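Risk register update: the risk of archive-format incompatibility is retired. Evidence:
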Amino acid sequence: MTYGENTLRVVVLGLPFLMPLEVATAGQRRGLVLFIVGTVLYLLSWIPLMTSPQSEWSTSWPGFVGPAYTPLLWLMGLGLMGRRLYVPSPYRRWMYIALAIGFVAFHVTHTSIVYTRNYQQTEWRSP
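Archived output:
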């Protein structure tokens, strides 16, 4: 699982460097708004984990996994802003969005496993 997550992480975070991010169309402007809102929500999702790691929110699944699922918003924004690559290719924005969804799915699954191991373990006692 970590190979899939890390491979998709490299592709999804590297690909925007190969595509011009434009805001010429209404869809691209929506992408910019989604990128900004998603980035703010992503940063906000870290604050409770850093300032109050033992709080009820930070130890709940939505709070703990928040930094894993909120990137979907800003990644979708990048996908909407980048229609093409700098080099001629059959690239389409749906390809980036599909890769971003795959990365976030791996990332949420991995973070959920860590959450389960840390907070949902039943106590085991030897007889």
